[in-house]
Amino acid sequence: MAYIMVDIESDGPIPGGFSMISFGAVLVQYGLDKTFYGQLKSISENYIPEALAVSGHTREEVLSFDDPATVMANFATWIKTVCKDQPIFISDNNGFDWMFICWYFHHFTGKNPFGFSSQNLGSLYKGMVKDMFKNFKHLRKTAHTHHPVDDAKGNAEALLTLKREHELKIKL
Predict the structure, then answer these.
(1) For the whole prediction, is pTM greater than 0.85?
(2) Catalytic positions
């Protein structure tokens, strides 16, 4: 299995009614040198200015981004290129990130290469330390900038730290 750490930025709370603005992905392996970055043109007239502001982009910029169908097809190709077997989707907040990636894959390509499951890094950490009030974010090395590749890398660093320092059994 190949773990792909994903982070997305959006202009609202749900796919379809709002848009995924950008996303980043990194193959979880030492070096973290296999990454993907996509910027997607808005698919909706709806947007929440405060949510859009988190991405660091203006509405005008977003309207000039790439066609979502092209970006999602390119992401599927990248996944096939870096994964020799089943890709596993993992993120900091998989309830949020997953719903956008899954919806966009099904809507724009007809299928999701990740299948129907996702993993949550935060829940994994809470289980490993046996404390529902603990947070893994101190394990990041790359700053959390809201650029999705930076954020995915930081989360992947945390996962690699769990493998190295907490004996997490994970195949890379």
Answers:
(1) yes
(2) 146
